[in-house]
Amino acid sequence: MSENLINTWSKRDAEEDSMTTEHAWIWREMIAAVGETDFTNAKVLDFGCNQGGFLRLLYDLRRYAAAVGVDIAQNAVARAEAQKGDRPITYRATDRLSDIGDGFDIAFSHEVIYLIEDLERHAGDIRKVLKPGGDYYAVTCCHSDSPLWHSWRPKIQEFSNVPVPNHSVSDIAEAFRRAGFQVSVQRFLASAYVPLGGASDYFPTDVDRIETYSRWKLMFQFTSGA
What we know:
This protein has helices at residues 13-17, 19-33, 53-61, 74-83, 119-129, 149-159, 169-178, 206-216; strands at 43-47, 66-71, 89-93, 104-110, 130-140, 181-187, 218-224. The protein has 226 residues and is α/β, with parallel strands linked by helices. It has a single domain, classed as Rossmann fold, CATH 3.40.50. A seven-stranded mixed β-sheet has the order 3-2-1-4-5-7-6, with helices on both faces. Strand 2, helix 4 and strand 3 (89-93) form a beta-alpha-beta unit. The radius of gyration is 17 Å and the shape is globular. It comes from Roseibium album. One of its GO terms (molecular function) is methyltransferase activity.
């Protein structure tokens, strides 16, 4: 039985509900960045799936054999399950990857890894569920090396229903190296068109938005050893 479940990630319902629309363009870039991987026979994991939009989009673009989305936010998982249609997806509200079995070919997370307090435990859990040679792609711009993180972190903590740690890029990389992964990274959106929405709570200017997405939003590739 999972012990650390919550109802929602955010105290702001409207913000949580808008994530699918706001993140869809980023999810498309994530899928493109993986390259021409054949997902036909793949078993896919989405860690921190929220309302399930990433796995729905991935299936619509690249048919896979089966997928599991996990999240600790029970209301979000219920909405994900209700919206999956006939796609071969199982959504689970759990904080334990041991609940979902193993044999995954590939795993993803988007803006989730920065909220994980114990990175070494997370890395070990991911390795246990991945096949040897499997890849985990984790995307985030929330890390202490980003110039805007010092202002973002208290803002996120105000509405987050979980604590917000303070990880650096090196902290993330080292945790996965110690778990036996090969670690690599790319500047995730360096060549993508970035929607410019003007000043916001997170981006004082459009230039800040461009800099964050082109320099500080990173896509880690963690490849599991034998």
